[in-house]
Amino acid sequence: MNCRELTIQLFLFPFSITLLSMESEPLLRIEDLEVGLGRNSGTRVVDGLTLEIRKGEILALVGESGSGKTVTALALLNLLAEQDLRIVSGRILFKGRDLRTLPPREWQQVRGKQIAMVFQEPGAALNPVIRCGDQIGEVLVWHERLNATAARGRALELMQEVGLPDVQDLYRSYPHQLSGGMKQRIHLAMALACNPELLIADEPTSALDVTVEAQILELIRRQQEKRRLSVLLITHDFGVVGAVAERVAVMYASRIVEVGSVRQILKAPRHPYTLGLLQSIPRIEPGGALRTLPGQIPDLTRPPGGCYFHPRCAYAIDRCRRERPPFEEVEPGHRTACFEHARLAPMSAPPA
Ligand code: SF4
User: Fold this and answer.
1) DSSP bridge partners of 28
2) What is the pTM for the complete model shown?
3) Which helix (H) or strand (E) holds 48?
């Protein structure tokens, strides 16, 4: 068993308990979302995405780079225009209201206040010429209408809450004076400042070393529990998934291909892509072979027919090249888009 697998095992049990006590009402429901590239192209970078995030849960969105995870997050926050992307169809229901119908001035009450986002590179997300504490205070002045004194006091409290030491000194620091982990804590304090209901964390630890990564994940988990936050955690790392998430959605080439609880996905995946990702986790046993997932994500301007995964799939049959597989429930709470999912069921024979 390697380190990542060990992490996954250690965290499965406590989170299965959390799962039982979790509220089941969705906070966010995305229905059949399609995001197109450019104004007139037929290219879809998010294709028929349906997903829900329940109140107080951490949902991990997993997949290789280029699968559409970050675009999905940007679509939720109405931030696609700068990327030359647009929502073609679908609904994004947040607390029952379709965000696509929100007038621009009402977005100020949602973005950064009810839905906050933490980005992969905290250094790039912070303003290099504004003191760190003032950047947190700005959020409170803008969204909560606090005066400067109250905003400063609250910013200091938030800095303590996210585990920063010597907050009076750090308040006056500029981002370049802080380590990567400290910058990410400042970024998290900004995101949590208005007590959001949904936090989108886009690869929040991938720029950090492994010890700092564990601390930031623990911080996110503690804040989620304390605030009953819902979290959409975007990652390509199943170690991160096993450490903090309760459910997992796997995305491949613009489409969701599998959704289930952490236990269902990590113990018994029912989609060959998920299985390939899990088998690609490096092992540290002496002589252990390094397994990889052959091939690469297709060019979405010229995608293959049928199931987009078929050129890389060891389980593919003729039908996979012609038809898109339906998204079917294989057990309660576990859905997959694969014609051959029965062959991945526990005790089934591997592909010839
Ligand atoms: Fe593989 Fe076919 Fe399943 Fe796609 S539908 S994952 S090609 S077996």
Assistant:
1) 53, 94
2) 0.88
3) strand 44-54
